[in-house]
Amino acid sequence: MTEKQRVRIRIESRSGSETTVQKARGDLYRKGDHTYIRYEEEPNELGRTVTIIKLEENQIRIIRQGDVQAEQTFVPGEKRTGFYHTPQLRMELEIETHKLTSEAIHGIGITRWSYDLYASGTHAGAYRIKLLIQEE
C-alpha cells in the first residue's frame, strides 16, 4: 500500500432537473490495482458518516459507515444489490448502471457514471454522477 495523499472531492449528482453538489477533503491511497478515497461527510441530522469510494477498472463501490450505513456497487450493464441503513430505516437497493467513464489517473481526475436506482423494488430515480478528485 502506498502512503495517503490528501485530496479535494467534489461529487455532482443529477436527477431530472435537480443537481446536488457535495464537497469534502479526504485521503486517497492505492492498494494493488485499486484506488481508495476516504472522507468524512459533513455532520448532519443523521449523525456522522465516513465514506469510502473504491475505484476499480470498470467498477465503483461506495461504502458508508457510521450513523448512516450504505453500500452501492456500480458496474456498467449490470444490476447490483445494495442497502441504505439509518437508525430509522433500512432499505434494500438495486442499482442498474448504464455507463461508467473515467478520465482519472490513479484516482486523480474525473469519473462519471449513470444509473437507475430502485429502493425496496420501486424506481427511485435516474442519476448521473460526476466525481472530481483533485490533489490538495
Explain what this protein looks like in three dimensions:
The protein has 136 residues and is mostly beta strands. The chain has a single domain, classed as Calycin beta-barrel core domain (Lipocalin, Beta Barrel), CATH 2.40.128.20. The protein has no helices and ten strands. It has strands at 5-15, 18-31, 34-40, 49-56, 59-66, 69-74, 79-85, 90-102, 109-119, 122-135. It has a ten-stranded antiparallel β-barrel with strand order 1-2-3-4-5-6-7-8-9-10.
Annotated CATH homologous superfamily:
Calycin beta-barrel core domain
The tally of strands reads: 10
**Structural class based on helices, strands and sheet pairing:** mainly beta
Question: What helical percentage do the residues reach?
Answer: under 10%
Q: Poorly predicted ranges (pLDDT <50, ≥5 residues)?
A: none
**Main sheet overview:** 10 strands, antiparallel, barrel
User: How many domains in all?
Assistant: 1
Strand order, sheet with most strands: 1-2-3-4-5-6-7-8-9-10
